[in-house]
Amino acid sequence: MQLRYSFGLHPDTGQQRSLARAFGCARVVFDDAVRAHEEDKAAKQPFPRAAELSKRLITEAKQTVERSWLGEVSAVVLQQSLRDVETAYRNFFASLKGDRKGPKIGAPRFKSRKDSRQSIRFTANARWSITDKGRLNLPKIGTVKVKWSRTLPSTPSSVTVIKDAAGRYFASFVIDTDPAADQARMPETDRTIGIDLGLTLPQTPSTPIAVLSDGTKIDSPRFLRRAEKKPKKAQRELSRKQKGSKNREKARLKVARAHARVADARREFHHQLSTRLISENQGIAVEDLSVAGLARTRLAKSVHDAGWSSFVSMLEYKAARYGRTLVRIGRFEPTSQTCSTCGVKDGPKPLNVREWTCTACGSVHDRDHNAALNVKTAAGLAVSAGGAPVRPGAIPAQREETGSHGFPAQARAA
User: Fold this and answer.
1) Other Cβ atoms closer than 10 A to 215
2) Rounded CA separation 154/307 (Å)
3) In whole angstroms, what is the distance from residue 389 CA to residue 382 CA?
4) Residues forming the active site
5) Helices 229-240 and 246-280: angle between axes, nearest 10 degrees
6) What's the CA gap between 261 and 263, in Å, rounded?
7) What pLDDT, on a 0 to 100 scale, did the predictor assign at position 385?
């Protein structure tokens, strides 16, 4: 399995200028490739091949006065930018044909130099390296200081340098993990569990983000709700600044940094919680919720603050990495309407009903705990005496190399 290990970068002033130059050159090559595809489409000509684009937009363009500055950056960065265009068009056509799962995606669009996020990728051909002193040596940029938070488990196959909206720099390494070593880190267990994901509403601060089938309730830190004063204040200051001014750019950075702190705290919480659940349980069942649909309701802010999608994605790739079983049940399963004791469907209930009594058997249920029990039952989780799952797990979700649109912020791979 391929995973990303991200670390903070601290380039000096000269290296920041070199990175800005590399970001700009990669963006120009990307836009030139998109323009070439659009021109051929308008002329009803077949799309150009990657080798043809590389020759025309990189090799020959460097010989012209208008694009001579492309030679100031590593050629691998430009080649990877072309590769991103090809991947984007491949995904677009696969989405049109219905071969690609998920919502429909559009054709690649031009990038802007005003985009708040920039990235470039170096493969092994670029001859980048990590020095003995722990610095990242990048071609035509220099040796950049890295803030290492852990040791890389193996030699990376590529590194993506990212500048996020808050002005922070990251190095994202792609690592091929060892399945045997990963599964040895987490020995098998005979425990299985169901998870009912919940909401934390402003008027009901005690509502947990998740309730487990064993009765454990995990309270939501409500990161955005607790810290929203700073983003609101920063946003008001931004709205007062004149567009295009330096003060507006400073105010924009304040807004981005305020939101980045919230996102980082939420991501860290999700990593810790998902790792604990994966290490303690051989099988895990969750609901396949329609987060996009819930985000269009009056509960949108609470839905985004909970971060269900990222949490379940972490459970998916960690289950695949450590040999666990993760099962998603259908979103239309009536887990909150069914009695977990006798199995009688008791009908829908509004969100403010947190406890109810079954009309058939008289059992008193906590709404969320009852739903977690039904999630586990619907998934059909069971383990044998030896700890191996009887029911096969879901399709592994790997975190692969995703080009210039990869995972942007600091991440924990475990």
Assistant:
1) 11
2) 30
3) 6
4) 196, 287, 368
5) 160
6) 6
7) 31
Give the three-class secondary structure for 48.
coil
pTM: 0.83
Reported as type and span, the H/E element at residue 99 is none
Q: pLDDT band for position 412 (50/70/90)?
A: very low
Eight-class DSSP state of 62 = G
- Beta strands in 116-168, from DSSP E residues, in sequence order: 118-123, 129-130, 136-138, 142-147, 158-163
The span from the CA of 334 to the CA of 179, in Å, is 37
Q: Which of 193-207, 210-224, 302-316 has the lowest mean pLDDT?
A: 193-207
Beta bridge partners of 383: 389
Q: What angle in degrees, to the nearest 10, is found between the helix axes of 308-322 and 246-280?
A: 50
Q: 236-249 burial, b if ≥16 CB within 10 A, otherwise e?
A: ebbeeeeeeeeebe
Q: Does position 73 have pLDDT exceeding 60, yes or no?
A: yes
Per-residue pLDDT tens for 182-210? 888 888 888 999 999 877 555 555 567 88
